Amino acid sequence: MDIKHMRYFTAIVKHGSMTEAANQLYISQPTISKAINDVEAELGVRLFNRNRKQFELTDAGQMFYDQSEEILRMHEALAYDLKNMVGVQHGHIRIGLPPIMDVSPLMAIMKTFHDKYPKITYQLIESGSGTIEQRLRQYDIDIGITVLPTEGADFDSFTFLSETLCLVVHPNHPLAESRTIGLDALRDADFIMFNEDFYLNEIINSACKNAGFTPKVIAKTSQWHFIEEMIQSELGVCILPESVARLLGAPSVAVEITEPVMRWRLGIVWNRDRYMNFITKEWLKHFQETFA
């Protein structure tokens, strides 16, 4: 068994059939079929359940897939890492981040890192925290910025921002003149919320449940700019982190929520006990040192 067998196998899993995998790899289907048969014979296990119309991984196949993905990533990164160790310093970093955050601290860190490593390129992918964690597990991104704590024990993380949540309303709203409110005052309010993928929703829903009511949601979105427009149109109220509330350009008022005080923590998250290339390690180290 060699690296190409793993590449063939993972292609079948990703594309759902030997035919499509063969097309994507520009090889014949008999070639890829023989390669999988050879691997199964060498390992002494079945990797696919072939009793169904679509290929399904056996338990052994799932384990082999996870290990093959890891080995292929390490193989692909080897040349970059060797070059980076001798000072060439090329690379690409994929960062998942939530739409609801003040990105100016992140941009400042990227600028100083870019000054140090000008040949590094980036891809910024906006998603809710749930999707970011899923993409980390699937190796679609290298680093995630998400709400802590995470749901899984397969991540390492550190907090770089902790702040309170506040109520955001239009200046004409009856609560706009209040300095502080209790959450119970929003029992009959029309809520503008983020989509279910955002952990911020869980914080808000849990707090409202403890206060004895379920928020009446009139709209959901994945973009805080849409929330900004809906507040401007006096469609409802929203609960946002203080840093995001300060960024709203439309006329709005932020009101402190004191009963209960709600907080959220943003953190950098990465896969624990899995391979991380040299340049991503350097970026993570730079980020941590900046906030130390």
TrEMBL record:
Domain of life: Bacteria
Pfam families on file: HTH_1, LysR_substrate
PANTHER family, A to Z: HTH-TYPE TRANSCRIPTIONAL REGULATOR YBHD, NITROGEN ASSIMILATION TRANSCRIPTIONAL ACTIVATOR-RELATED
Keywords recorded for this protein, A-Z: DNA-binding, Transcription, Transcription regulation
InterPro entries (alphabetical): HTH-type_LysR_regulators, LysR_HTH_N, LysR_subst-bd, WH-like_DNA-bd_sf, WH_DNA-bd_sf
Signal peptide: none
Keyword Cytoplasm attached: no
Gene3D superfamilies: 3.40.190.290, Winged helix-like DNA-binding domain superfamily/Winged helix DNA-binding domain
Protein name: LysR family transcriptional regulator
Ranges of residues in domain HTH lysR-type: 1-58
Entry's family note: Belongs to the LysR transcriptional regulatory family.
